[in-house]
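Subject: complex prediction, re-run

Hi both,

The earlier run crashed halfway through, so I resubmitted it with identical inputs.
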Amino acid sequence: MRKLEFDLIIKNGRVINPALGFGQVADVFVKDGVIAKIEKESAKTKRKIASYPDEMVVDATDLLVVPGLIDIHVHLREPGREYAETIVTGCRAAANGGFTSVCCMPNTYPVIDNQETVQFVKARAAIADARVYVIGAISKELKGEELSEIGDLVKAGVVAITDDGNYVQNSDLMRRALEYAKMFNIPVVSHAEDMQLCGEGHMNESFESSRLGLKGRPSVGEVIAVLRDIKLCEFVGGRLHIAHVSTAGAVEAIRQAKAAGVKVTAEACPHHFVLTDDMIGESFDTNLKVNPPIRTKKDVDAIIGGLVDGTIDCIASDHAPHPEEDKDAEFDKAPPGMLGLQTTLGLVKTYLIDKGYLSWADAIRKMTINPARIMGLPGGTLNEGAPADITLIDPDKKWTFKEKDILSIAKNSPFVGWKLNGRAAYTVVGGKVVHEY
Amino acid sequence: MKLRSRHLLGLENVTRDEISLILDTAETFREIIERPIKKVPTLRGITVLNLFYEPSTRTKISFELAEKRLSADSISFAKATSSVTKGESLRDTVQNIEAMKIDMVVIRHSSTGAPFYLTQCIDSNVINAGDGSHEHPTQALLDMMTIRQKYGSLDGLRVVLIGDVKHSRVVRSNIWGLKTMGASVAICGPSTLMPYEVEKFGVDVYTNVEEAIDGADVVNIMRIQLERQKAGLFPSMREYTNLFGITKERLKLLNENFTIMHPGPMNRGIEITSEVADGDSSVILNQVTNGQAVRMAVLYLLSGKKEEAE
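This time it finished cleanly. Structure:
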């Protein structure tokens, strides 16, 4: 058989490479799992592509060709809660949603606070559809008492540390985490909700929680938590990343900290810029229960404002599978969290791009190069020589998210039945097509 | 005239006509329970389940008696002696009981929305007998019935609800019902026991009890729970009594022909003195009797709803 120059060609797509600002129709040539070159179509390239067998050419006409999307906030539940999600199923959902890389959170059983568990996750991820980067625990068993062996974790390959799910309530421990993580130049990811103010709440504290008589998680609990972490970061240095920003006050705090030169970055989740707390009383849908909670219109507007002006660097899903057995319960007894990997892109297109808040280029930046830079990951660009992690987006594909389409084991999405616009048409990881619809 | 829903989950979305219908119907049942033979065949063949996940004296006995007086077959469930202690979920519990062919469920539960959740799990009519801090519609209906009996109408009456507004389902249901029926509603309690953005309930809010009851017709006093003090929401029971307790002295501020109410159980000497609770203006025991009539009315009106649907 004739030896071919390339392994995969993506032809005639509109290429958006945020690293270079490239945004025109071109062909992408992949060899040995990396991007070999990107060229505008010419008679020569046309002839070359025509000589390739069909199965090696993806026709990207009318599609966007972007760096593989990166979601830095995902709960894959393995080890320990494989009845909700496994690394393989979670990565299948990721690929379906256009994500080529995910960062998984350490609140597994056992907790990812030791090398063995990191290695276990990486071994499982080796056969999964997407790349998995591991985030380790700040504190042993996420107890918020003493630092985990962060040096060991970094050696095993963790890209960041967090106690996500819990706020590091002990200010001195958070200070030490930021100081200690400096040695390894990794970010400390904060789930910023003061547990004394928010710990027992089930939804945003507002007139809605008052009306329903449900205990609230006040927005000020997030603002105080964010401000403390910003001040600690300002004092001791290090890199702070604020997970799932949900309040107007936190957006403003981060905006001011960035202006003052503090090394803080932030992410927002689709549910925090799409859903509001007044939806809860209509259905008591436990899939609307999440920490931090869905808030008010004012907060939604502020988060969108933060995404527009760059205060919020990236978009992450906080994909949090919980099985029907746990979610099918009274609202205050259900666990917090919702799926996100398969709906993030459609929600970004429908609620941010179609509404005129972000351009495609802005949105892609917040789902590729920005999260890659925060976590120090190799992906996020379409530069020659970069890993061939590529997502092809059908930008105006109208579709309805159906429960039968959910690839996660758990089905806890409040977006089932929603009509969305924009969808991943193909997902390519290391030059291999892992999803096509 | 009929009720629009086949469930009674709360009063927030119940209309004036519907409340009037329930209260008018309750008056006819009130007459029945004053008879020597207090039983009518109205709900013969209907099976009602009383599902009590929280302790209750008045409400539970009141519903059970209401069902018996209407000739319904009723069974009662108490969480402590059930398989819930073995970890059975609410859905499984009620689906199993419904499989034994029941028609209506009365539920008391510590979780907001549990009655709504039940309507999603089973086909029976669901009556909320108190869900978390959310609503307790039959309590507010019996309160309104009691007030209406004395004054003829609720329109323009000044009704003050005093106590732990934040955690009280009785207050919430009373606010919705009283507003709908045209009363002028005020609430009063420590600011730490007011829910967030309380002004959005659209009632007058007071933290000074004298100002709150000045010129009022009806004072409805809520139980204050020791757990709230333990949770740090106010400094001591003694201070609560000093600031908010209803004493004979304070009654002087009320309008002539005033009324004192309490949904029970009372903490005598804390939120209300015995003198006030047992005084001539107290209708506390009449509330309890009316409770039975209101529950008969609700059971009757909702069961009729079900037959029409079939």
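The interface with chain A takes residues 12, 89-91, 109, 111-114, 116-117, 131-135, 166-167, 169, 172, 195-198, 200-201 of chain B (CB under 8 Å).

- K.
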